[in-house]
Structures are given as C-alpha cells and as structure tokens.
Amino acid sequence: MNLLYPSFLWALGVLAVPIIIHLFNFRRATRIYFSNTRFLRQVKEASTARRRLKHYLILAARLLFLLFLVITFCQPVIPAKDQLANSRAIVVYLDNSQSMSARLEDKTRGLDAAAQMARSIVSMFPPDTRYKLITNDFAPFSNTFKTGAEIQDLLTQLRLSPITRSMQEVAERITQDATSGQSQEVFWIADFQKSTAGKIDHTLDSVARWHLVPIRFQPMSNIFVDSAYLENPFAAGGEKNVLQVNVRNDGAREADQVNVKLLVNNVQTGAATVSIPAGGMTEINFDLATGLSGLHNAVISFNDFPVTFDNTFNLALNFADKIRVVEVKSITASEAVQKVYGNQQVFAYKGFAVGNFNYNELDQADLVVMNGLNNIEPSLVGAVRSHLQNGGTVLIAPGAEPQVEGWKNALALPALNTVPQEAMVELDRPDFSNPFFENVFEEKSVSLAMPKASRVWEWGSDRSAILRFKNDQPFLSMFDQGGKLYMLASSLDRDHTDFHQHALFVPVMYRLAASSKKQEGRLYYSLNETFIPLRLDSLPRDVPVRLVGKEEVIPGQRVVGDNVFLDIPGFSVEQGFYKIVAQEDTVGLIAFNVNKAESLMEQYTGEEVKALAAGGENVSIFEASSIDAFSNEIKERYLGTPLWKYALMAALLFLLAEILLIRFLK
After folding, report:
1. 626 phi and psi, to 5 degrees?
2. CA–CA gap between residue 665 and residue 662 (Å, rounded)
3. Distant-in-sequence, close-in-space partners of 353: CB < 8 Å, separation ≥ 6
C-alpha cells in the first residue's frame, strides 16, 4: 500500500489530545460527608473498575477515529499494475462497423459504449499525454497524435461506418505509423466478430503494449438476406422473371412467421410469410412484372429485433443495358438476323460484310453471328478463337456450301462434315426441361407446329442439343469452348429452312442473345467492395462518371474502351441506391448493402482474440461488461486501487462506537 499524500501524517500528533484528556481530569471534585461510609466504599470500588474499562474503550475509539481520519487525508492506494510508457503515446482503435449498433445487456448501443470507454481512457491520463484515434474509415485525422480535448471532440462526431476491417488490417494500420523503438499503449475496442475478425499473420509488435477491450453483446439472433438473384439474369424482350431471395437465420431458435416484403420503386409488389429454421436458410420467390424495362430500385424488407441495421436489402434492377450483336455475313446472306436483332431498345446491332470487317469490333460484342459464310479466312479464325477463349459467344449459320476443312480448324470440331443435299424435314418439339427454354413459353404445348430444315453439315450426335430433328440429329447445339459456340445445321436461306420465318425463331434468338450478355450488371454490391466495373455506350472521355444518391460522389475511374472501372471510396458511400450519371444522362443504377459478414453476430472471447493475435506478455484483456466496470478496471490498472473510502468508513465506524459506548455502557 502507498500513500499519495504522506505529508498529512504529521497530523497524527492529534492522537495526544484524547490521551491527555484521559490522564487529567480537569473537573474539581466535590466532597460529600456521610455518617457511615462502609457501604459506600464497597460501591465505589465496584464502580471504579467498570468506569475505568469504559474510559479505556472510549479512548481507543477516539484514537482509532483520529488515526483513520488522518489516513483518509493521506489517500492510501494499492499500487497500479501497469505504468504509462515514458513516451506517453496512446493509440485507440474503435470499431465503428454496423454490427456495433447492437445492444449490450444494459441496453446501451455498442458504439456508444465504446465511445464512452474511449472517453474514460482520455480523461484518466495526464494532460500532456498524446492520443491517436483510429476507426474503420482509416480517416485522415487518424494519421497524427492529438490532445485529449481534440480526441474528445472527434468522439462526439463518431458514426457507424459501412466499412468492415479484419484484425490483420487493423494491426497493420496501427503499426505502420509507429516510430521505430517508441513504446506506446494500444487500446483495441471492438466486438471481435468471428465472421470478420480473420487472423493476424504475424505476432503483434512487442514494443507496444496491446490492451484488448471486447464489447460483449447480449445473446441474440439475427435474420438477414444472404443472397438474391434473378432467375433470368437478363430478361430480353420483356420475358417473365422471378426474383429469388435467400433469407438466413443466424440464431439458435427458429424464426416463425417472418413477414418479408418486396417493394419496387417504393410500391409493394410482393409479400411472403415464412419460417426460418435455426441456423438455416429459406428461399422466397417473388414474381416480377412482365415487361420491366429501364432502371428500377427494389427493396426487400422485414422486421427483426434487436439487430435492425440489416432489415432492408437493396437491389438495382437494370434492364437498360443493350445486348451488343455483331453480324459478319456474306453478300447473299439472309437478313433474318438483322431483323430479329433490330429492336433498338434491347439490342445494339452492327452488321458487316465479311470483306469489310474490323476485327476490333469483336472485343465489344456480346454475340457474334457469322451468317452465310462458306469459308473463313485464316485471319478471322484467330480473332474468333480469341473471342471464344475470352468468354465470348459465337453463333454459326453456315452458307449453302460450307468448306468444312477450314471450319474444322476454326471451330475445333473434328467431327464436322458436310451432308449430301436432302429434303427439308420437320424439327422435333423443344425439350421444355432444357434450361435454355426456361421461362420462354407461357404454355408448353405438345402439339406445337415446328419449322422444317435440311442440313448442310453435321457434327455427330448431341444428346444435349437445344433443337434437333425428329431423327434425333442436332439442329442447334451449344459447345463450351471457354465461351459459348452455337451451331446451326442449316443455312438461314429459304432453300434450306423456314426456321427464320417460324414463331419459334424470335424467342430462341432472344434467349441465345440474352445468354451471351457480358459483364451483366449485378443486382447489388457490398459496401466493403471498392472496385466496380461498368460498361457504358459512347462514354465521353473528358467527363467523369458520377454516383448520385443521398450525396454525389465522383469516384476514381479508369476508362478502357466502353468499359469504366470505378474505385469506390468506402467512407463516402452508404447503404442505398446511386444513379450512374454521365454528363446529364442517367445510364445505370447501383445498389449498396451492408457486408453480410456483419450480420453474423457470434463473437470471440478475449482469450480467443489473444490466441488469434499470437499475443504474449505484452497483450492484456479488459473483461469489463459495462462502461462503469471498464472505468473502474482501467483506473485500477493505471492509478491503483484507492483505499481512502475504506479509511473514512473505518473512522466513522469508530466515531459511532464512541457514541454508543458513552450512551449505553454504564
């Protein structure tokens, strides 16, 4: 035990006062005469012994009262376990991710509790101590040390951040600015979620002393949207579509009767009531309106307490992107391809004669149609192979007399052969179970009238052919060659088929084009993603793309052809919708959601975090479960345990004892 003010010990001299009073009785005695003193003498002897005991007890109570009163003013303390480093440099990392909006057992929000703990740290140390506050944003203010007053001001401005940081990122950020050989105190205040913590790849800096402060939430479950996708990612021509949503339950109990709603452009278009098993997932399907075109914002919402930050999920329905079709054709080729892809609201069509074709057009095309070519030039072979290997889509509609040997090498189909001239025969009805035809037909009639065709070449049997003749020979097949290679067995002229005049032609060609779509716009992005590729038509080179939401953001960007690569500043973007604006035109829509890892609320204990951080003697853990408990624990560690309250209580106790002795002891 130490005394903070030992100079007060001189006041122990007051202990002589009650002793002097006890030894000397200053009251003058009064003599009383009695006729017979024998009986009184016996009473006096008995009373003197009791009175002497009473005086000694009262004297002891007075001495002890004065002794503990003096010790109270000396302020005794049990020495602190830790001492502040000589550099007096303190780094406070405060996790302000979305999960910190959850509640502690005393109903305090996690972020508010963490901020109050940081204030306790700042207010406890000497005035000349310097502090550095780091949050998930890694904002510029965290680059330099500041005074306690400046840190207190920054804490009042603290807000939840959309950015999630792993332990590795935090450790690297704390140590990268540390002065070589300088000792500093690091307070790491976080909820230490298992889903986002990760593992530190190296031992924490041994020069610094690391203090882990886990924010422990009350036991809770959470419901959130795990994923969502369209059954048909690119619905061309107003095809029917279905939005499939997977809702997940992170709790240990079943979530019963959860009401999930779908709002498109702020109008409710669907609702479902589902039960989600503990630790499981339930799929919900919402039918989307037929013929949706343009840009639409969709929101999935439900009620779930006490974790509410992920009760909405945003989706951007972009049906404005056009499918780029490039046709390379002979002079005598049919115009069927040009007509079917002439819908300018859905397709961006370009047609070229084979002798007047710029191969660079292939790089920007979603679908390349080679129509009516009997042979293929060697230079074009390399361009087509490269397009396929890069994930492109090619449709081959041969000429009436194809030169097979050249096409074999170009298409890597060794079984390709010509077919002697034959009469046109009817195709077999489509296999409606083939994924290619999913959502194409409203009614799946077995009596569907089918087109006729005669083959000009063949490539062997194909059990997975999209369309086939009634003799089971393939008419339209798809080959996976890095990209998608579609092959027609006949030419698209009138002498070989009436397929291009049949009602089946348009839905098949639309579906084929839809399946070729490159870089399909994603329904949503996580706020933790910083790199977004976009594809825009006729983008002005000198005008940057802007994201317009609640606030306008101009992200870093790089333009390559018609592709734009955006570098999203995480601390400037929040959950919600942002329009993509080029000049004054809205060319797209992006939806941002909270990183779903934030919705998994399971936490590490302090000891588990220390093990993950490969911590040694320089790593300590604060196990305080409330703000007051943390404040007391940090004072005990750095200021010691004060005992003056106990000394004062002892002084008052002996004062009370003196009063009771005088009052009741006769």
Report:
1. -150, 170
2. 6
3. 329, 330, 331
Token readout for 103 is 């509640």
- How much is the pLDDT for 110? 93
Instruction: Enumerate the H helices of 403-476 as residue ranges.
Output: 404-411
Alpha-carbon distance of 91 to 99, in angstroms, equals 22
Distance between CA atoms of residues 376 and 370, nearest Å: 10
Instruction: Give residues with Cβ within 8 angstroms of 5, minimum separation 6.
Output: 73, 74, 75
On whether the CB atoms of residues 302 and 261 are closer than 8 A, the answer is yes
pLDDT in tens, 37-78: 555 555 555 566 777 788 888 889 889 999 999 889 888 877
R_g of the chain computed on alpha carbons: 42
Alpha helices in 461-601 (DSSP H): 505-514
β-bridge partners, 258: 274
Q: 544-568: string of b/e by CB count within 10 Å (b at 16+)?
A: ebbbeeeeebebebeeeeebbebeb
Which stretch of DSSP H or E encloses residue 111? helix 110-124
DSSP structure class, residue 293: -
In the chain, the amino acid numbered 55 is H
Measured from the Cβ of residue 454, the count of other Cβ atoms closer than 10 Å reads: 17
Q: What is the rounded CA–CA span in Å between residue 530 and residue 209?
A: 33
- Apex 310 CA angle, 305 and 316, nearest 5: 145
Exposed e or buried b per residue across 383-406, where buried means at least 16 C-beta atoms within 10 angstroms of its C-beta: bbbebbeeebbbbbbbbeebebeb
Q: Dihedral angle at the C-alpha atoms of 292, 298, 300, 305, nearest 10 degrees?
A: -170
What dihedral angle (degrees, nearest 10) is formed by the CA atoms of 44, 50, 53, 57?
A: -120
φ and ψ of 469, to 5 deg: -75, 170
Distance CA 520, CA 363 (A): 16
- Which residue reads 């063949």 in tokens? 458
Paired with 394 in beta bridges are 368, 485
CB under 8 Å to 317, separation ≥6 — which residues? 264, 288, 292, 295, 296, 297, 298, 523, 589
Banded pLDDT at 176 (limits 50, 70, 90): confident
If phi > 0 it is left, if psi is from -120 to 50 it is alpha, else beta; for residue 583 that is left
The one-character DSSP state at 515 is T
**Residue pair 120/114 in contact by the 8 Å Cβ criterion:** no
Strands 425-426 and 452-453: antiparallel
CB 114 within 8 A of CB 189: yes
Question: Can you state the angle between helices 38-74 and 16-23, rounded to 10 degrees?
Answer: 170
102-120 pLDDT tens trace: 988 888 999 999 999 999 9
| Whole-prediction pTM | 0.69
Read off the pLDDT of residues 264-295 as tens digits, 9 standing for 90 and up: 999 999 999 999 999 999 999 999 876 667 78
Query: Which tokens hold the place of 78?
Result: 């049990």
Place of tokens 């422990």: 216
Neighbours of 663 (CB within 10 A): 8
Q: Confirm if 466 and 445 have CB atoms less than 8 A apart.
A: no
Order the strands of the 223-230 sheet from edge to edge.
223-230, 241-249, 281-288
Output the CA torsion 138→141→142→147 (10° steps). Answer: -160
CA–CA gap between residue 237 and residue 511 (Å, rounded): 9
| Phi and psi, residue 49, nearest 5° | -65, -45
Q: Report which DSSP code applies to 34.
A: -
